[in-house]
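Input record (one chain):
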Amino acid sequence: MRETYDEQQAASRLRVSVAAWRWAAASRAVPAADAGPGLWSRAVVESTDAEAIRAALPGPAGAWWAAERLTEALGTPLPRCRPRVTPAAIGHLARAGLLAHLGGESAYPDVHPDQVAALARRRDLPAILDRHVPLGPDQAAVRLGVRRIDLDHAVRLGWLTPTTTVTIDYKHHGGVTTVPLYSAEDVALLPVTRPSVDWHALRATPAGHRSPLAALNPITPAEDVMFLAEAARIAGVGRAAVVNWRRRHADFPTPTGGDDVHPTFTRSTVVAWLLAHDKIAIPSTLPTAALHLRPTGEAPRRFQLADPRVELSDDPEGEDRLTGWMADDGTADTLAVLAADDASVSRLTAPGTDPIAVPGAVRVIDRFRPGSGGLRVTLAWPSSLRGHAAQTPAGGVVRHALPDTAPTAACPCTQKTCGGIIPTPSCPEHGTTAEPALEWHPGGGLRCGYLSRRALLA
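The corresponding structure, as predicted from the sequence alone:
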C-alpha cells in the first residue's frame, strides 16, 4: 500500500482532476503537504472529501480568458497608458503566488475563475500588474503613451534596461525571436525620474515625425547623475527639503562628485531612496481632468480627459486652452457637437489649477491621432469669461456683483479694490443679496486687475 502521494497520485486516488487537487491545495481545502515537499501522507489523502474537491472547481479557466477578465477590470475603454493584460501576464501572476497554477503550460497556466474574479475586484490591480508583470517593447510604449520609436530611443539612451528576455517562436513568420522584457515600474517611473523631458510634447508627436529624443546622446550609468535641485524637482519639493532629508537620514545616497555646496549623486540610487522612503510614488494611471459641460437648455454632461494641460492666458483679450486625451470611441465627437452649440463649462477640475467655470463660448479647436493610441483634444474659450468655481457643496461660480471699479457711496464694500464683491455671507455690506451684474471672472484675478488699471488710466 502506497504511503505517500504526489499531486497526480493523490488526484488519481480520489478520482478527481489534477487541477481540482491543485486548487484544493492552494485554497487550503486539504492540509498542507505533510510527507515532504509536494507529498501528502496516505492518511491525509484518504480522509479528503473527493466530492467537495470536485465541487470547488467546476472547471479551470484558461490564461486567455483570465487575461480578458483582468483587462476589463482595468476599465472600459482601457485607460490611456495602460496596456492590455496578456495571457503571459497570467503566468507571471501565478509565479508571484497571486493565482494558483492548476494546469497547462507554466507560461500560460489554467487558473480558478473565482480567484481571477477576486483579483479583478482589487482596487490596487494596476499596481499589482506594475509590480509583477514585465512588459515587452510594444507594451512598454503603450504604458508610456509614446510611439515604439520613442521607446527605442529611451532604451538607446540608457534610461531603460531589460530585466529579462523571452523567446517567442513565430513559426512561419520569422522563426524564433528573443524579445527583451522591461520592469513595468521602471517604465511607469520614467516621466517622474526624467523631468527635463517634455512628456506632453513627446506623447503628442505624430506618426512619421522625428522623435524629440533622437537628438539626445546616450550616457553610461556612471555619468547619469543629478544635483539636489533635480532630486527636489522629482519629489515635488523645494531643494531645502532634500538638503534636510540628507541631513536627517543616514542612508541618504553618498555623493559621487561635485563639491560640498553642489554635490552630485547617481540618479538610480537617489530614485531608489525616494521610492523606499515614500517621497515619490509609481504612477498607476495618468492624471485626469473632469469636464462638466452644460449645453444650452440641457443637463450637464461629464467628460474625462487624461494627462490634461490647462493654459490660462494673462491677457483679458486672449483665450484659455485645455488639452487632454480621450478614448477614440466617438466620445470626442459628442464633446465637439455639444461645444459647438454655445455650451458652458459648469465645472472643470484639473490637477494644478482651481476649479474653473466658463459661461458659454467653449469650442473644440483641435483633434488629432498621434500614432500612439488615443485621441488628443484641445478646447478653448475667451479668457475674459473664465471664473473660478466656488468651494461650496453646491458648487457655483465666484462672480463680482457690482459694476464699480472703486469703492463708492453706492458700494461701500472695501474687501475688493475693484469695488465689486464676492457674494458670500462674510461681507456685512452685501452678503448674498447682491445681484451679479459684472461679467464672470476670477475674483481678484485677471479681470479685476484689468478693471483696476483701466480705472487708474481714466
